[in-house]
């Protein structure tokens, strides 16, 4: 069963609104990743001023830098948990 609409403009505005909320995954260049990794070595948490500075330097926006740091911290935390486990791995589904 099809839904008919009398206003083409309504459908168009709904589609434009949906596009604004779609996530676009962006790839970083190897130079950008290298620069971000160096920053991460010195500071696991970036200040807003630092995010703006590195975003301008690398041609990214502040939000991309913020999300990269968030994801990198999660990866770092995971690696830390695994390396601290006596058998070299972490079994998440442990029961007593």
Automatic annotation (TrEMBL):
Residues 7-16 have a biased composition (Polar residues). This is Homeobox domain-containing protein. InterPro entries: HD (IPR001356), Homeobox_TF (IPR050848), Homeodomain-like_sf (IPR009057). The keyword DNA-binding applies. Residues 21-80 bind DNA. Keywords: DNA-binding, Homeobox, Nucleus. PANTHER family: HOMEO BOX HB9 LIKE A-RELATED, VENT HOMEOBOX. GO terms for cellular component: nucleus. It comes from Adineta steineri. It is found in: Nucleus. One of its GO terms (molecular function) is DNA binding. It holds the Pfam family Homeodomain. Residues 1-26 are annotated as: Disordered. Residues 19-79 form the Homeobox domain. SUPFAM superfamilies: Homeodomain-like (SSF46689).
